[in-house]
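Changelog-adjacent note: as of this version, every example in the card shows the full chain rather than a window. The one below runs 137 residues end to end.
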Amino acid sequence: MPPVVPGTDLARGRPTTASTYQANGDGGPFTPDRATDGSFTTRWASEWADPQWIQVDLGRTAAIKHVQLGWEDAYGAAYEVQTSVDGAGWTTAYSTASGDGGFDEIALNTSARYVRLNLTRRGTAYGYSLWEFGVYG
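Full-length structure tokens:
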């Protein structure tokens, strides 16, 4: 089970888009909205190539204190958490080149309407795969 994060998951049920998703496979299609549905039984999975991205529209500018990434076995080894107030200009709020899968707990202190993962290096030969992409106020 994921670590408990205080606050409300602002991304849950919000419009989520991605550069790609896997349309086929056992349990597919693995559409982006599955990463923000609040369930660790569904997931988003990208095509097997770098780079990729997934982003969520929170619906309004909100204070963001924490991002929780629940990776499936196919994780991001290098990625950035980017934020935007308008969905056009992006600011990097966090970056890593040493992701190792599992649960990534990222403390932030920012405000934004849009939150995007800019995924640049896969940790496996497969695509990227997230059970959940939580954004907490």
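Structural remarks: The first strand starts at residue 16 and ends at 18.
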